[in-house]
Amino acid sequence: MRLLRADQDQFQFELGRNEKSRFIHLLKLYPLVPATHHRLSKTDEIPNREENQQLLEEALRHQREEHRQQVEAWLNAPHRFVAAGKSYRFEMTRSQIEWLLQVVNDIRVGSWIALGSPEVLEASIQQLNEQTAPHFMAMELAGYFESFFLEAISGERVPDYDPVVLGEAIEFPNPELADADGLVAVGGDLSVERLLAAYRQGIFPWSVNPITWWSPDPRGIIELDGFHVSESLAKVLRKQPFEVTIDKAFQQVMQGCALPGPKRRDTWITPEFIDAYTKLHQSGHAHSVECWQDGELVGGVYGVAIGGLFAGESMFRRVDNASKVALYHLVQHLRERRFVLFDIQMVTPATLPLGALTISRCEYLKRLAEAVTRECLF
User: What is the pLDDT of residue 179?
Assistant: First the structure.
């Protein structure tokens, strides 16, 4: 069993096939093990001791019934365990782990009671038979999972994630299996076919040597009807200081984005990316919006279009407001062509004032699945 992600309130775990079967089996034992009992006192000195003891037992029975229902609902939830090669992954919130810990602790203690509450466990092991062996195994399994989950939420256990290594086949793992930073896989290539397959699944590349593939959570988008035009930008648009074109200088825009600029000392756009996305542009799936001044390219933005999705990749400016004007005209163009999803991957200080916002990866993937089925021409 491995801890793959540990955020403040969200944890992701990985189980081997046998571990998954044992985990499910253990949780299904919960209503069957002997209930643990708690005594108010070992003496009779507490007033109304029997009445209060009954109230305690009733509260414990009520709590166990709630836990039983929680276990049943959790196990029966669709897609609870996601296959990942030869293993399975699942997620739990901190509050879910807390009630799970109460469940497995009850199983562990209840199994110990069923074994006769042995003071020396080694001695009872030698006397195991067909009736007592299942209780011993349940106690051991419960102790194993209890320790693991306790270490996970206490911070004693460090996340351990090995990204999928891509081969020659053009296929990607489920993006919802990404690590805490959004890393999905490494390797593969930047062919047109692989890039298109990635974007259709909400995945994009971010480096070479090695090539890394990402699907962050949350995801940055700009709602096409929510682009914010400030008073200063409105003034610039009215003055029309730039000639705006579409797909007139795609590779030049990428090269502009690759160069150091204001508040950007370096970039991830390497020559390999420029070559790959130029081929994507030549295939009709990557596009740019350019801003010109006195015949010189002074700003622009580029991205990938599939169906009703436009995935914005990067933008640049050599004079003030050129990138904002390019982005404004891109949004207007996407609205005219009935695109439904404008992905910007992550919200930045440059896009936040323009109306950029974040949505969960789950919500993004739902919207993406619908967007790529649209027939939109850029």
Answer: 81
Nearest to 64 by CA among 30, 27, 21, 92: 30
Per-residue pLDDT tens over the stretch 100-115: 999 999 888 888 888 8
pLDDT at 129: 77
Three-state secondary-structure class, residue 82: strand
Q: CATH: 3.40.120.10, 3.65.10.10, 3.30.70.3550, 3.40.1360.10. Which one for 167-219?
A: 3.30.70.3550
pTM: 0.67
Domain locations in the chain as residue ranges: 2-154, 167-219, 220-371
DSSP-derived letter for residue 294 is: T
Cα 221 to Cα 200: distance, rounded to the nearest angstrom: 16
Calpha distance 102→98 (Å, rounded): 7
Q: What is the pLDDT of residues 338-355, one digit of tens each?
A: 999 999 999 988 899 999
> Which residues 6+ apart lie within 8 Å of 263 measured at CB?
349
Domain 220-371 fold is: Aminopeptidase (3.40.630)
